Amino acid sequence: MDMAGKVALVTGVTSGVGTATAEAIAQTGAELFMVCRNKSKGEAVLADIQQKTGNAKLQLLVGDLAVQADIRRVAQEFLDTGKPLHLLINNAGVVNMHRKITVDGIEETFAVNHLGYFLLTELLRERIVSSAPARIVSVASNAHEFCKEIHFDDLNYENRKYKTFEVYGHSKLANILWTREIARQLQGTGVTANCVHPGAVRTGLGTQNGLLGKIATKLVGPFFRSPAKGAATSVYLATSDKVEGVSGEYFYDCKQLTAKPWARDDATAKRLWDVSQKLVGL
Ligand SMILES: NC(=O)c1ccc[n+]([C@@H]2O[C@H](COP(=O)([O-])OP(=O)(O)OC[C@H]3O[C@@H](n4cnc5c(N)ncnc54)[C@H](OP(=O)(O)O)[C@@H]3O)[C@@H](O)[C@H]2O)c1
Fold first, then answer.
1. Pocket test for ligand 1, best of 36, 37, 73, 120 (most atoms within 8 A of CB)
2. CA 253 to each of CA 180, 243, 260: distance values in angstroms, whole numbers, following the listed order
3. 228-241: per-residue pLDDT in tens?
4. Hey, what domains does the chain have and what are their CATH numbers?
5. Predicted structure pTM score
């Protein structure tokens, strides 16, 4: 797809899959808004991508996606530019070894990995629809296989044991269900929404969990794929003509995959939508 004249926004650009995705999108010549929570890290990544791609149309938006007020400010800053939005890539994500609660009172993994995607997209939705044809691409994971249901009775993991991979899988299950529901809602608008499993990628994911997180990441790193390879499916869904009109699907290695049955339950997807709306005050 010709990306000249297109405007894109990518979250979580300061590391791993997000940096590689931002670089690949910048390479297409699109105008790119790069969302990060750490300004100086973001500036360094932006300068590096600018130098590598020669794309002068890169801008940073700074905000913590665990904080709903920050998401609202970031979205407003984008909306205030008056620009269209042809491509939104929800990529920022976190894995925590211990339960953390955000300033909004929500378990952090669910807040960043699911509600972060949900709220940012809702706030930008009207602009995306008015920019159609447009695409929403979200980074999910095959970790949805670790968690077979959305715990509507305990989204914050207050009453059940906090198991890192299950909690992470829960948030990634939410990504796939949410993608199905928003794709359904966007039918007929010219906007598609799909999600990806990037593979097991050598990134910073989990490294904020102290020494143990760093050691574990170092140990598995050699067996994992590069960030560029991890970004390839997001970039494919964002830019390829081959997926024009495809929506609500889950991809891995640029191929459509069938997510687990519990990630394809439309009643659960609708219920998650309603609950998410309440949790972000929409
Ligand atoms: N790595 C894998 O094997 C793998 C497998 C399946 C799915 N995924 C998914 O791929 C996506 C990218 O992860 P990655 O592997 O590239 O991990 P990563 O290297 O840790 O990058 C995560 C990015 O998200 C940002 N981020 C985290 N919390 C944030 C917050 N509260 N506000 C704003 N930004 C925040 C990070 O910012 P900082 O630089 O400031 O920390 C970083 O830019 C995630 O959605 C993850 O779940 C990864």
1. 37
2. 19, 13, 17
3. 999 999 999 999 99
4. 7-279 (3.40.50.720)
5. 0.96
